[in-house]
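Bit of a strange request maybe. I'm writing a small parser for structure token strings and I need a real example to test against, not something I typed by hand. Could someone generate the tokens for this chain?
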Amino acid sequence: MQHITISPLSNELKTALQDKIDQKTKPPGSLGRLEQLALQVGLIQNSLTPALKNPSIIVFAGDHGIAADGLVNPFPQAVTAQMVYNFLQGGAAINVFCRQHQLKLTVVDAGVNHEFPPHPLLKDRKIARGTQNYLHGPAMSPDQCRLAMQAGADEVKLAYEAGCNTIGFGEMGIGNTSSAALLMSYFTGIPIADCIGIGTGSNAQQLTQKIAVLQQVMAHHVKPKTAEQALATFGGFEIAMITGAILQAAALKMIVVIDGFIVTAALLAATAMQPAVKDYCVFAHCSEEKGHKAMLQFLGVKPVMQLDMRLGEGTGAAMAIPVIQSAVLFLNEMASFNSAQVSNRTI
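Reply from user aminoacidic:
Good idea to test on real output. This should exercise your parser:
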């Protein structure tokens, strides 16, 4: 992947933004998290009048070698391709929320074990038909990992050039909660057993087996020396693409809306590569998937929402973008005490 440098946020306008927020016709702090979001978005855009332009969601889909034998997933690997067709037909939850909130949706084949016919919603960036099984070796080669990260960055550039400044990412890939758990354990130092959730459709017996398999995976590999090596060893093509996409979006000073467990795992890799990336991220929600809360605590961040969701697909990001929009609108459109001729003296 081409080198990307991400600048920390400038605090040049912080005092002026906070003053503008405090002068709105409300008690100080009474809009709660919306006030924090307004400040963050203003700092990202370095503007007293920030705006969300053409907000978009990109869903990256990829298959995982570990999923082919069903050791860590109750659903067969073929479901990844089936769900991509569902996205293309407009029938998934992410389609519904994107339509509702007028978000542009793009679906990217990062490495699904299926050949799709051309479709106007689908971008073909397939690295291979699924990763290798990390029980036996790295999930991908260093070159494949770099190619995947670059492909994610290139998708973001296209969105940016089309006028988008607010972007969220989603994923689809049977077995990808296992990859995310492995990456979480690597980056946070939390034991793998504490990073593994029951996943989509699993039961207690399958969870026990999943923990045993992933402990075996961790024992099989010499600890990777860099974030890139960890991503290549344990990741999926969709996760690597999201990592590159997050880095590129932050470099372009876009608002980066982070979804749930899988996307946050990609962010852990991105943050290890470029710590300043976190300044540009809004954390949509706390997933019900075990491990996500600990990820957010490790990053020292607070999610916008708690809706007990754990679907993926970018659904949490799609739900959070209207909240961010509300923060921007109150900053720009709400009257100040002075303009409304309301006294702001407390008695």
